[in-house]
Design goal:
homodimer; mainly alpha; Farnesyl Diphosphate Synthase; two-stranded antiparallel sheet
Chain lengths: ~350, ~350
Amino acid sequence: MTNQPATKLDTRAQLPPMFARYKSRVEQGLIQAVAQRDTPPNEADSLYVSIKYHLGWVDQTGSPATDAITQGKALRPTLCLFACEALSESVEQASSVAAALELIHNFSLIHDDIQDQDRERRHQPTVWCVWGVPKALVAGNALQSVGDLALLNTNKEGTSPEVTLKVSQLLTASYLEMIEGQCMDLAFESEVYITAAQYLNMIACKTGALFRSGLEIGASVATADAADVDAFSRFGSNIGRAFQIRDDYLGIWGDTATSGKAAGNDIRRRKKSFPVVFALEQANGAALDDLTRIYQQEELDDKDVDRVLDILDELGSKEQSDKIAEASAEEAVESLKGVSLPDWAREEAEDLVDFLAHREY
Amino acid sequence: MTNQPATKLDTRAQLPPMFARYKSRVEQGLIQAVAQRDTPPNEADSLYVSIKYHLGWVDQTGSPATDAITQGKALRPTLCLFACEALSESVEQASSVAAALELIHNFSLIHDDIQDQDRERRHQPTVWCVWGVPKALVAGNALQSVGDLALLNTNKEGTSPEVTLKVSQLLTASYLEMIEGQCMDLAFESEVYITAAQYLNMIACKTGALFRSGLEIGASVATADAADVDAFSRFGSNIGRAFQIRDDYLGIWGDTATSGKAAGNDIRRRKKSFPVVFALEQANGAALDDLTRIYQQEELDDKDVDRVLDILDELGSKEQSDKIAEASAEEAVESLKGVSLPDWAREEAEDLVDFLAHREY
């Protein structure tokens, strides 16, 4: 990997090699799952245009998209396929399951954008921005069902009904947990003080659940060994935390060009991400007064954003975020210690953890 | 059944007896499914307050509700349990499945209210009206997952993994169809002319799919006989159409006190329900000009509503709605002809069809 400055188009090059290895398999799975429903001779077709637009395949008119960077990293399906290959040296049996994970993650993104009134994602207008809230709501729901169906139909590809049912239960329970996390997150918005512990519990649900179940599901289709599945489950929880804390970091200190998000964006939006929660917990005197006052305002101006950035700097929010991401990364590696894995898999797991905890986008 | 004028509190008395017979079983199933998740010592608890509020169990503060009329008819689970009992003389095995159907129907209602900006349902403020759009969106998603989990977990109650998986596939496919129907419905809003055939195709998805799958699922847990399952599936499609056309009728000509909806409400909201679609297809001259003009306005006043009512009257929209509901009812009864059923079941099926096609609320 080269170390040249990242530009909009070469960021993907920094991903660990497993992303490239599984990329076309994930895409095939997604295309197949969506194509199973996208055959209406009727008025529902604009539904699938909005879904394919969100997935980065077409533009707003339904014509094929040319700029592949608008697609996501396919993180969750990659994790799922990795767990499956690490335990069984084969990925075939996890293809549909991996696609389902990505579809369900994308359903949550479409609804998240409505909730947060976000107008842009991956350098493009969000679905609700293009088609309005009612259609975006329906598109999200449809995407979830397309994902569920992809998963429920895996038994038609040779997976036993027992395993298919088990992974469906795992996935459904985990996205209910994700939803519960979203709900806590919404509740936090109207509160000024949240403890770091409350925040970490919330992201364990909102972000961690789908990371955890992705790895658990990938492991479950590969092996019936409960200890191995459990190890990958803990691995998932830990990398989920590392990922989210790094995401919070990038939302404040990330480079706009690489992350696709505006710098200081999360502060301007008064988002109580980890660095802010930590600062609110640590602050005293003028810093506490200023944070409290600023986070109770309806809107923040440039001066407010600068003041918050100064306070976070003073209180060591950046260092603490790094520390938590680092500790989660170490715990993740530790989780897999007891599992018998081929060398390539252990090395890749460590590279993955390193990437998630230190990525710049 | 008495024929006294219906009041807000005695409408339930007009329901066919199967509703009373299954009522407590459905309620138990719902309570059990929701209770499985509603145990958070955390900030997600307001999520379950909003869900239980929507189900009519608690008020906005979370205190037990006193007025049972705010609960729905539990139509879909009742149909499911009926199919199961008619084919196997037992309902035990369909309890969780029936609860799942009702939960998923209610998820769609919470989201429908957001889409349509409806402020009232069952004489109560809607969830988005009380808690805002973001929380209502999340509550709907959670309710769907609670329903899915209830269904996926039926194998823990003795149903085989194969049958559990089959009914999960049926249900998921049918609510994707329901969502596709909602999408067509949204697309229709921006078009002036829709044919009656397009409209009937839309409601076959939007309303019919869940009726059909409810009966198909109830039949599937009772028997492996494909012809019997198929007969109940066709029965469901037909009563779905009869139900929706009657719903459209009541939305225009229904009695406000019994239906819980404002008279002429669907006209004022420019809803293109069957009577209006039929009138637009039939109209000529001044009637067509007036309908076209009125349905292109942003808002309708009393004079507009009266003019539309007069046109529907002239063109026989009421009679045509009755005719379609009647024909669907007859086809429904016909669908079950080839199935060997006990006398009580055939009689109840006929009473049910009669109720759905002629109900006043």
